[in-house]
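User: I'm preparing a small set of examples for a lab meeting where we compare how different chains pack in three dimensions. I only have the primary sequence for this one, and I'd like the structure in token form so I can line it up with the others. Please keep the answer compact; I'll paste it straight into my notes.
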Amino acid sequence: MKRSSIYWYIAISPLLFFGITAQAEDVVFDGMKVGGNALPNLWRVKVKEGKKNIYFSGSNKKKICFISDKASFSIERKVDVDPEEFPVLKWEWKGIQLPKRGDLRNSETNDQAAQLFLVFDGWFPNKSISYVWDTNAPKGSTNLENWLVIKVRVIVVESGVGIGEWKLNSRNIYDDYKNYFGSPIPKLIGVRLQINSQHTGDRAEACFGALELSKQ
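Assistant: Understood. Below is the structure token output for the 216-residue chain.
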């Protein structure tokens, strides 16, 4: 029977490796660990600034957590998913400590404890969407960031409140891409979970749980 959703498994699919794209029928993210406290081959760590601090939590260590002390780092992997077939992204995260002065509206304070970054296929500049838990920018606010080879639409889905609580979120990535970048909607080719506090020099901490792309 054809599955109606896909999951990103940080640990569980032995047939998938980072660098090999995953089809929409594959299980690709939910549990965070097979053994030890190391990421499997599906994912790689990328450090932009400072030192990474990653730990696993939960009874079965199903959650991955980041601590940033004036740092910026992430975990990322390649995927191959058609947003028209699987438009609804659902995920859970928990903000434990937000950078006090974090605010995406100012480049000097553009730090967030939790970021879910999506990269779509296409010619340069690639288009991306980043869902963030900001400290001070209002929920629902957005910002367009132009990098050298990529355009990023940043969307604040959580702001300030709810620290220490697991938050469930749902976004239609097909509609978000269409609203901000227009049509046609290309394939989703990359996923990144990120934290940063290097601009403010503050401390930040957050955890991520399951991510799911579904038909509805």
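A couple of notes for your slides: Confidence is low (pLDDT under 50) at residues 8-28, 30-35. The chain has one domain: 5-214.

User: Perfect, thanks.
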